[in-house]
Amino acid sequence: MPNRVLSIGEKFPAFRKKAVVSIEKGKEFTEITHEYASAEGKWTVMFWWPKDFTFVCPTEIAEFNKKNSEFADRDTVVIGASTDSEFVHAAWRRDHSDLRDLKFPMLADTSKSLAEELVRWVSVYDLNVGRSVQEVIRVLDALQTDELCPCNWKKGEETLTTQLSLN
């Protein structure tokens, strides 16, 4: 795969990756492809963390899990990912109480092929600071309008597209 960043409007890259979906023995792993969500006409939020067995990352992952129904309400499938292997993901899920009952898969991008290509919206934080999952939901809502959304826009508020069409 080329070493470039996927840009807005480009097709999601084809992939086939192992993922952890359970801590139940014999049901831990599955294979996920680029068609995981799109086959059902759903949106995908794929979020990344730098490494398993860190301190801030499980707080973010647990928050995405708590908000899973809000993503589902928006016809969106959540996939968490890092470049650690599926075996490391499984060990971390078994080891950390906040990760045992995740409602979304933990994707193993050991080749880093997706990590090198995917960008539609990016937020970057220092390793010591967790991201705002509510902000991810706000940006998803804005992207799903397919309209121009002003600073601090929230679902249900008027978009700039609506304002411009009234003028």
What ranges have pLDDT less than 50 throughout 5 or more consecutive residues?
none
Number of alpha- plus pi-helical segments: 5
Terminal Cα separation, in Å?
46 Å
Major β-sheet strand ordering: 2-1-5-4-3
Q: Output the radius of gyration.
A: 17 Å
Task: Categorize the overall geometry.
Answer: globular
What would you call the structural class?
Answer: alpha/beta
Biggest sheet: strands, sense, closure?
Answer: 5 strands, mixed
In short:
The protein is α/β, with parallel strands linked by helices and 167 residues long. It has helices at 57-66, 68-73, 86-95, 133-145, 160-166; strands at residues 16-20, 29-33, 43-48, 76-82, 106-108. The longest helix has 13 residues, at 133-145.
Outline the structure in words:
The chain is of the alpha/beta class. Helix content is 28%, strand content 16%. It is built from five helices and five strands; from the N terminus they run βββααβαβαα. Strand 1 and strand 2 (29-33) form a beta hairpin. The N and C termini lie far apart (46 Å). The model has no long low-confidence stretch (mean pLDDT 89).
